[in-house]
Amino acid sequence: MGEVFLDAFIDTLKVLPFLLIMNFIIEILEYKSNVRVQKAMSGGFAPLIGTAVGIVPQCGFSVVATELYTKRKIALGTLLAVYIATSDEALPIMLSSYAGVTKILPVIIIKIIFALLVGYIAFAAQKLMQKRSVTAAENAATDAHIDEHEHEHNHDHEHEHDHNHEHDHDEGKAVHIHGCHHHNIDEDEWDGENATKKQKAKRVFDLYIKHPLLHTATVIFFIFIVNVIFGIAVYYVGENRIAEFIGSTGYFQPVLAGLVGLIPNCAASVVITELYVVGGLSLGGAVAGLCVGAGIGYAVLAKQNKPVKNTVLVIAVMYVVSVALGMVINAMPQSIFGL
């Protein structure tokens, strides 16, 4: 049992450097960013970059991507690309086995292509929805303006005698708006000329050091707890039993392999990869499990992301598209993939 806590501690430490550095960067971007930075982080190359970093055998990137997504710094397509491409422990295990070397290429190629495909489809769909939303809002505003103009034109003769009164009223309204605006500026720039050096230093410390450290500590603790829970589950159930159960499901391997891939722990990718290398899992099953698997990223997504229905949507999309891909691969001649 002691090994479970040790493994959970080690797995958590692997994520810590990535998470800590990214939280510092996020804080800086939140208070110093401009429109150019925001566009760069969600630009057209984002899914491609997400796929590239996701394929690196390290679950830390899925956690970083999740953190960015929960703050809406990256688009959904980028997150999906990172999740699908994430290989976690799969790549090292395959490379450590001679049999795994001959099988690794099809899996990696499929994961990369699929990550790019799903990532850019989701990216384009989100952009299209945003464009339609903006267009609808502009049309509604235009219609409202036209209606207002026609109303004023038809009733000008009724209001001519009140012209002077309305002019005075508008001037008072302008002064009132200006006063509110001035009040907001004072609140936003409390650390300006009137702030002391001590106040400025405290604000910088709170924003750029204290907050990211506390946020990192909270997330890391949650990750450690999740690792311990699933470590205990695997300890009592056993990796061999899980592998045997998945291997006995035949054509429907992708369905169960996908469920295992949803486990927010590197143990999921270990079980799937080892079973695939020894021949107990088909290519479709391995692809489904490894595509849906995003390591500890799901745990962070469940904790940090709002609203909950968006979290459920992300996980559901990951599972459905990955299992569907696995089923399609199993239905095709394996010779196509060089196996």
Please provide a written account of the structure.
There is one protein chain. The chain is mainly alpha-helical and 339 residues long. The protein has one domain (2-152, 201-337). The chain is 81% helix and 0% strand. The protein has 16 helices and no strands. Helix 3 (46-54) runs parallel beside helix 5 (76-85), helix 12 runs antiparallel to helix 16 and helix 13 runs antiparallel to helix 14 (283-292). The chain is globular and about 70 Å long.
Short description:
The chain has 339 residues and is mostly helical. The chain is built from 16 helices and no strands.
Key features of this structure:
339 residues, mainly alpha
Order of helices and strands: HHHHHHHHHHHHHHHH
For this structure, the quaternary state is: single chain
* Average pLDDT figure: 76
Instruction: Give start-end ranges of low-pLDDT stretches.
Output: 163-190
Span of the ends, CA to CA: 39 Å
Structural class: mainly alpha
Helix content: over 70%
Let me know the largest β-sheet.
none
In total, the number of strands is: 0
Number of domains: 1
> How many helical elements?
16
Overall spatial form: globular
DSSP strand (E) fraction? Answer: under 5%
Radius of gyration from the CA trace? 27 Å
Q: What's the structural blueprint in terms of helices and strands?
A:
Layout: H1 2-32, H2 35-41, H3 46-54, H4 60-70, H5 76-85, H6 90-95, H7 98-154, H8 156-159, H9 163-188, H10 197-237, H11 239-247, H12 253-261, H13 266-277, H14 283-292, H15 297-304, H16 308-331
Helix pairs in contact: 1-4, 1-10, 3-5, 3-7, 4-5, 4-15, 5-7, 7-14, 11-13, 12-14, 12-16, 13-14, 14-16
